[in-house]
Design goal:
globular, single chain, 0% strand, 11 helices, mainly alpha, 76% helix
């Protein structure tokens, strides 16, 4: 992989800027690893490996959530930075495991940048209060834009700094890593993905969901089915579950006003 040209570098910074903003806005999902890595791959001409990296990181980020005052690791910074390292490293698919391993500490480091930006946003809030007292709605709007742009710069500045590192330097550094370290990072990256998915299962686990998970796990083992086919089966099962849930909630044995076990599918089966 050669160094990126000026247009590609500008596009990467723009993607990073929007990913940082959407980490707060949460409107277009630019901060999600699958979207952010795909966009980086699209503007740099490395779409396939970037999608693979984004899919792996997305499985990890599924278990990240803000709970009360606890802030989840920064998925936007992890996605953008690891995608840039993967592209500059030029190791293609072999570098995905290393990029995943690098993304985890970057996500934790992003919490420090988030703390700095949110601290800087405090005076902006006070400025909004003063503008509200004076009735200056235009100033309030501009201060809102300023606060959101600060979140974008939180990701764009580190991304721009990474782009100034020559691709040959990144590649030489990655190639100089010993085999035991590469293998360890590959194993660790795979374990992190499994832990992220396990966290999601732990949050979603219930008597109603477990049968569908077991069924999907068995179907995924059938090698003749493509990911599109498995996804279609998943959508069909979801629609069936929603339909049965509505029937269970409205039936006499359901979980509505007439009582019930709280398990719509179980109430339907008990009726038979």
């Amino acid at each position: 992989m050669s160094d990126l040209n000026a247009i590609q570098m500008i596009l990467v910074v723009i993607v990073a800027f929007f990913a940082g903003m959407d980490g707060i806005l949460d409107q277009f999902q630019f901060h999600q690893p699958l979207v952010a890595c795909t966009l980086i791959g699209l503007v740099t001409g490395n779409l396939e490996i970037s999608v693979m990296l984004g899919g792996s990181l997305q499985m990890i980020a599924l278990g990240w959530a803000n709970v009360g005052a606890a802030i989840a690791p920064d998925a936007a910074l992890a996605s953008i930075a690891s995608a840039i390292i993967l592209v500059l490293g030029g190791q293609e698919q072999a570098g995905i495991s290393t990029a995943i391993a690098v993304a985890i500490p970057l996500a934790v480091a992003g919490l420090f940048l988030t703390m700095i930006v949110r601290t800087l946003a405090v005076p902006v809030v006070h400025g909004m209060d003063k503008a509200a007292e004076s009735g200056s709605y235009r100033q309030i709007e501009w201060l809102h834009v300023l606060a959101v742009c600060m979140q974008g710069l939180r990701i764009a500045i580190p991304a721009g700094a990474l782009l100034f590192i020559p691709a040959t330097t990144v590649r030489q550094f990655l190639e100089s890593m010993p085999d035991w370290l590469n293998e360890g990072m590959e194993i660790g990256g795979g374990m992190v993905v499994a832990v992220g998915y396990a966290m999601v299962i732990n949050m979603m686990s219930s008597r109603e969901v477990w049968p569908f998970f077991i069924l999907g796990f068995a179907i995924a083992a059938v090698t003749d089915l493509t990911l599109i086919a498995i996804g279609a089966i998943g959508i069909a099962l979801a629609l069936i579950y929603i339909s049965l849930s509505k029937q269970g909630g409205s039936s006499q044995g359901g979980s509505g006003n007439n009582g019930g076990s709280g398990d719509p599918l179980g109430d339907i089966l008990n009726d038979y």
